[in-house]
Model the fold of this input.
Amino acid sequence: MTMRRTLIPLLLLTGCSFFSRSQSKFYSLDRVAPAAAPVAGVQGVPVSIDGVELPPGLDRREIVVRKPDHQLEIRSAEQWSASLKELALHTLAFDLAARLRDGMVILPGATKPAATRSIDVVFEELAAGPDAKVVVDARWTLQGVAHHEQIAVDVPSLDSASVATGTSQAIGILADRIAAAVR
Done:
């Protein structure tokens, strides 16, 4: 009877550890240095990124990689540090601020002056895979003028760290292109 009392809790503990989830890994997007130095003395009305939209299914915490045949691999144990929409907005805003003169970009959460030019960004694509690359297909508007950018960044593999690095680089290239139009 004593052996049974000891054996049952031991089996329950062993079973629970067998079914426990693996530890999640979290990734963020990094700011990328500008391709060219900011142009000194450029004046004008400041800009702010007022809206960012992502394709359905990609704005989530889990890292998503495209697979062949229109499939998605959702990596539940490998996640972004926030929703991808929030990360993309903040990374793009800070990358853009690094490319323009100080004070030309109103960062997320800052008070907007009355005179501000709005930038809205709609990502038709912001994902890695199925090839070893991160693809950005974005449409953005500035004062009613529409722009379309297509960017592909090769990555060494589709592991989550490479996806995060490639996504950071792609957003940095998008910031370069937006900064060129803002100037």
